[in-house]
């Protein structure tokens, strides 16, 4: 059987997922590293304690998944996320942090994070979250989801939708945007809409361009803020 290249939104199985872990707390870093070492779907490239070390690894070798804390001794995890996105737009980034205030969460999503867990995540939850992320979904802790919903409600109340943008989305793109918001994979969307799996990513790229978004979470956030979809 031919290995999937991930274009259909399913878990990419052609090679182990190359993971970069960034966590300054040594006991937590060791714990997360042990969890990742036991995950058969991935290969831990490095476990970094600083932003500088993480940036060096990002510049030196290809990374498929960045798992990062936000508050680091020499900077902020969003800097690593932005660097990853600029080097490899198809890579995934997930935050694991104790920070859960509105501004921090939104900043991380806008930087390109597609997943956000709090540090109380156990080993099963962490691996499940990674596999959800690699399958095209956006795993977030329930308290983080509340932050996003609260922020969306506030934005929707004070910001009228931009009519030209709403009109720019085709009916098919709107359907796919709804599917993205509900967490469907590309394969599931294709089956539901009766289109080819290869067509879905084309529509998704157009949606990202029109919404000026960089990832699934940002597209859903922006679409909700503009009143194009309601969660």
From TrEMBL:
Superkingdom of source: Bacteria
Keyword annotations: DNA-binding, Phosphoprotein, Transcription, Transcription regulation
Chain ranges of the Response regulatory domain: 18-134
InterPro entries per UniProt: CheY-like_superfamily (IPR011006), NreC/VraR/RcsB-like_REC (IPR058245), Sig_transdc_resp-reg_C-effctor (IPR016032), Sig_transdc_resp-reg_receiver (IPR001789), Tscrpt_reg_LuxR_C (IPR000792), WalR-like (IPR039420)
Residues carrying 4-aspartylphosphate: 69
Any Pfam family matching the protein: Response_reg
Keyword set includes Phosphoprotein: yes
Sequence ranges assigned to domain HTH luxR-type in this UniProt record: 162-227
Record bears the keyword Ligase: no
PANTHER family xref list: NITRATE_NITRITE RESPONSE REGULATOR PROTEIN NARP, TWO-COMPONENT RESPONSE REGULATOR
The protein's name: Response regulator transcription factor
Organism: Pigmentiphaga soli
């Amino acid at each position: 059987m031919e290995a999937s290249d991930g274009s259909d939104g399913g878990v990419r199985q052609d090679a182990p997922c190359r993971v970069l872990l960034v966590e300054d707390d040594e006991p937590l870093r060791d714990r997360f590293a042990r969890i990742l070492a036991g995950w058969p779907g991935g290969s831990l490239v490095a476990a970094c304690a600083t932003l500088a070390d993480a940036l060096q690894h990002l510049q030196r070798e290809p990374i498929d998944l960045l798992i990062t804390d936000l508050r680091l001794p020499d900077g902020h995890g969003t800097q690593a996320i932005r660097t990853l996105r600029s080097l490899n737009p198809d890579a995934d980034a997930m935050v694991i942090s104790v920070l859960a205030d509105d501004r921090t969460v939104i900043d991380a999503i806008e930087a390109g994070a597609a997943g956000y867990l709090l540090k109380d995540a156990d080993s099963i939850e962490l691996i499940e979250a990674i596999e959800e992320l690699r399958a095209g979904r956006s795993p977030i802790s329930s308290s983080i989801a509340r932050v996003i919903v609260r922020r969306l409600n506030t934005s929707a109340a004070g910001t009228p939708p931009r009519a030209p943008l709403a009109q720019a989305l085709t009916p098919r793109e709107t359907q796919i945007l709804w599917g993205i918001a509900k967490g469907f994979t590309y394969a599931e969307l294709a089956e539901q809409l009766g289109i080819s799996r290869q067509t879905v990513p084309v529509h998704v790229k157009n949606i990202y361009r029109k919404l000026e978004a960089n990832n699934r979470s940002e597209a859903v956030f922006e679409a909700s803020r503009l009143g194009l979809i309601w969660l």
